Amino acid sequence: MAHQASPFDDPSNPFQDPTITSALNSNNQESSFALEQDPLHNDHRHNSNNDNDNFTSFHQYPDNTQDPFSSAHTQKTLVNSQEQQEIVSTSNANGDRSNGDLSAREEALLQKERELAEREAHLEERHRPHANNFPPCFPIMYLDITTEIPLNHQSTVWWIYREWLWFEVTLVWNFVACLCLLFSHPDSVTSAPTDLGISLTEMFTHTLASFFLWYRPAYNAYMKEVSLYYTMYFIFNGFHILYTIYKAVGIPNTGGAGLILVITLFTDGYIVTGIIALLAAICWIGMGCLAIYLYKKTYDHYKAAGHTFKEAKDDAYGRISRSSTARDTAISMAWNSRR
């Protein structure tokens, strides 16, 4: 019986191309076992001339005879495609999650921008008027606690303002007590003229000094939350507290109607003058206690807000460097030192 030629035996058949055949079989190589004699055993056999020793070893070789078009190949291809789809779906899920995070951040930024815009609009509604309103008798500046100070600090600033007003009333009453002492005092009191002159001077100088050295810095500190203003308040209000205690003691020739003068007046029988001096001493003591309380409260807020002395020092250096007067003074001093 004659052998019938197969159409795939044609050398021009593209399926007989070794390149295509190896490409089709490379994706579905599976391991198979083949029998092979151990060459070491063969050498041993030749050396011992023992023909009965016929040992065979097993080696694993890839089986390239599997049909790439079989059902097993199709199933494996489907499994691979499903794994790729799972990887793609996982990456898409991660991408969706990251897109969700970006959307949430974008929404948070937009919300913050809207809040800032509303706050700015609210501040514009409560904008600071151009007209000065303080002091009422002769306005030279603008002060408005309800407008410029945050709501949670308005009570503290109001009490600091009342402390300053109490200080002014005490200075005036201290002058009245020294004036009464000048016209009605025992012979043991020889400092009445000196006390009157000092109390009159302090009534004007200490009014301005207290306003610009510790009340105004406290006002700006709570309004702007700047460490430099807090530091100024702590320094000068600390001197103010010591000055209040000094006046409350009532040492002669210091201009203060304090406890020493009150005891002397009551001892010598000057009751009316002694009562006036006693009221002045009570004002000094009461104002000193209020000053200490507000000082402590402001210091607690200063520490809670995270302000430091280094921050105040850096702010002071920055303001000095931005000041044209300080800059010109430094240049002139440097120029003079070179000469």
UniProtKB/TrEMBL annotation:
<dbReference type="Pfam" id="PF04144">
    <property type="entry name" value="SCAMP"/>
</dbReference>
<feature type="region of interest" description="Disordered">
    <location>
        <begin position="39"/>
        <end position="102"/>
    </location>
</feature>
<feature type="transmembrane region" description="Helical">
    <location>
        <begin position="164"/>
        <end position="184"/>
    </location>
</feature>
<feature type="compositionally biased region" description="Basic and acidic residues">
    <location>
        <begin position="39"/>
        <end position="48"/>
    </location>
</feature>
<feature type="compositionally biased region" description="Polar residues">
    <location>
        <begin position="13"/>
        <end position="26"/>
    </location>
</feature>
<dbReference type="GO" id="GO:0015031">
    <property type="term" value="P:protein transport"/>
</dbReference>
<keyword id="KW-0472">Membrane</keyword>
<feature type="transmembrane region" description="Helical">
    <location>
        <begin position="227"/>
        <end position="249"/>
    </location>
</feature>
<dbReference type="GO" id="GO:0032588">
    <property type="term" value="C:trans-Golgi network membrane"/>
</dbReference>
<dbReference type="InterPro" id="IPR007273">
    <property type="entry name" value="SCAMP"/>
</dbReference>
<dbReference type="GO" id="GO:0055038">
    <property type="term" value="C:recycling endosome membrane"/>
</dbReference>
<keyword id="KW-0812">Transmembrane</keyword>
<keyword id="KW-1133">Transmembrane helix</keyword>
<feature type="compositionally biased region" description="Polar residues">
    <location>
        <begin position="55"/>
        <end position="101"/>
    </location>
</feature>
<feature type="transmembrane region" description="Helical">
    <location>
        <begin position="196"/>
        <end position="215"/>
    </location>
</feature>
<feature type="region of interest" description="Disordered">
    <location>
        <begin position="1"/>
        <end position="26"/>
    </location>
</feature>
<feature type="transmembrane region" description="Helical">
    <location>
        <begin position="269"/>
        <end position="295"/>
    </location>
</feature>
<protein>
    <submittedName>
        <fullName>Scamp family-domain-containing protein</fullName>
    </submittedName>
</protein>
